[in-house]
């Protein structure tokens, strides 16, 4: 287990975002500088770095002009061994009734030259948007590194989106999440380290690192993994932990959870809450029980820590369930964060080609 603990210090952090409040021009500049630093750190060339800077500037400027206040979230993403940067622009402003009109260069509702959304879409390799009158706007864009088109699949088997952020008073998030997939099998884990800060993060990161080492080449099953994690986390303060394993060939979802991780699997016909038992992995593990459910085509899985209220309902947001999972996670975070705890929201769906009202897509690197 010591090797797993050592791996924590070496593993790249691709699960957590950095958050930048946006309300005035100086805050736009801070978010843009952070994006430039992240781009250079993961090897973007000047062209890609410049494109990312324009995207962040335009997205943040739109927040200031139309919503007055909002937030930019940045994180590194990986696909097929290629690095990219995801930008989430989140606001609770008036929203848009006609997305296509706002995409047209020259259209503006504030007397300015409206090029923002059109430029963002053109410069992004992946783009999606959720907006509705009175429900604000959330924009997701991904810029991949140079020469990415030959290295990453245009349509991956799984779509995953997440928000993972610390309590406002903390620098380090005590939550973590990770995913391991191979062929038609996938295991998704969410951990909430006991308390806040670096010691909580060490517990959750230990579980995250263990997921990648538990069964090399094969996603681990939930109950055996939690038992294994219980031993590994004894050297930490412990964590709430839940694991979902999906076998899309067998159309099967297996789930086990200990502590305050909530999970829900749903489609257009039904919504099923997945059961976790009380306890702390690494400290007070009372019971591990694995449940098996049917996993149907088109289903979505949402897992989150107790930093998110459980009273959310996607039916309040027409069309959101068909958007990219990153947008689903961002809207839930925006509207249902408790504000007094670390927060993690992870949304997973098998990839489907789709279009929906209010969204524009550009998935070709």
Automatic annotation (TrEMBL):
CDD domains given for it? HATPase_RsbT-like
Question: Which SUPFAM superfamilies would you find in this protein's record?
Answer: ATPase domain of HSP90 chaperone/DNA topoisomerase II/histidine kinase, PP2C-like
Instruction: Extract the GO molecular function terms from the UniProt entry.
Output: protein serine/threonine kinase activity
* Matches recorded under InterPro entries: HATPase_C_sf, HATPase_dom, PPM-type-like_dom_sf, PPM-type_phosphatase-like_dom, Ptase_RsbX
Keywords, A to Z, come to: Kinase, Serine/threonine-protein kinase, Transferase
A Pfam family that the UniProt record links to this protein: SpoIIE
Domain PPM-type phosphatase positions = 155-350
Organism domain of life = Bacteria
Kinase: is it a keyword of this entry?
yes
Q: Which organism is it from?
A: Janthinobacterium tructae
What protein is this chain from? Serine/threonine protein kinase
């Amino acid at each position: 287990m010591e090797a797993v603990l050592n791996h924590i210090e070496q593993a790249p952090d691709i699960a957590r975002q950095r958050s930048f409040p946006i309300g005035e021009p100086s805050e736009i500049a801070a978010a843009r500088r952070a994006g430039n630093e992240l781009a250079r750190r993961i090897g973007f060339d000047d062209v890609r770095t410049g494109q990312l800077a324009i995207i962040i500037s335009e997205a943040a400027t739109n927040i200031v002009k139309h919503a007055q206040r909002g937030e930019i979230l940045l994180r590194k993403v990986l696909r097929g061994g290629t690095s990219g940067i995801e930008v989430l622009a989140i606001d609770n402003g008036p929203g848009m009734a006609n997305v296509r009109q706002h995409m047209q260069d020259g259209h503006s509702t504030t007397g300015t030259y409206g090029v923002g959304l059109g430029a963002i879409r053109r410069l992004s390799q992946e783009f999606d948007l959720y907006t509705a009158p009175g429900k604000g706007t959330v924009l997701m864009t991904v810029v991949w590194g140079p020469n990415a088109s030959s290295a990453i699949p245009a349509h991956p088997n799984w779509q995953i989106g997440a928000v993972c952020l610390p309590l406002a008073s903390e620098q380090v998030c005590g939550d973590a999440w990770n995913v391991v997939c191979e062929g038609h099998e996938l295991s998704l884990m969410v951990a909430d380290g006991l308390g806040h800060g670096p010691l909580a993060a060490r517990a959750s990161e230990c579980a995250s690192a263990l997921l990648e080492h538990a069964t090399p080449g094969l996603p681990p099953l939930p109950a055996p993994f939690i038992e294994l994690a219980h031993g590994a986390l004894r050297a930490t303060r412990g964590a709430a932990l839940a694991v979902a394993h999906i076998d899309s060939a067998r159309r099967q979802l297996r789930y086990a959870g200990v502590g305050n991780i909530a999970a829900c699997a749903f489609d257009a016909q039904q919504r099923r809450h997945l059961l976790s038992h009380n306890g702390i992995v690494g400290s007070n593990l009372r019971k591990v029980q694995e449940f098996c459910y049917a996993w149907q085509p088109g289903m979505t899985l949402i897992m989150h820590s107790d930093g998110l209220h459980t009273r959310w309902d996607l039916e309040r947001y027409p069309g959101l369930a068909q958007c990219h999972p990153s947008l689903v996670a961002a809207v839930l975070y925006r509207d249902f964060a408790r504000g007094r705890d670390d927060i993690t929201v992870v949304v997973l769906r098998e990839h489907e080609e789709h279009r929906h009202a209010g969204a524009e897509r550009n998935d070709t690197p």
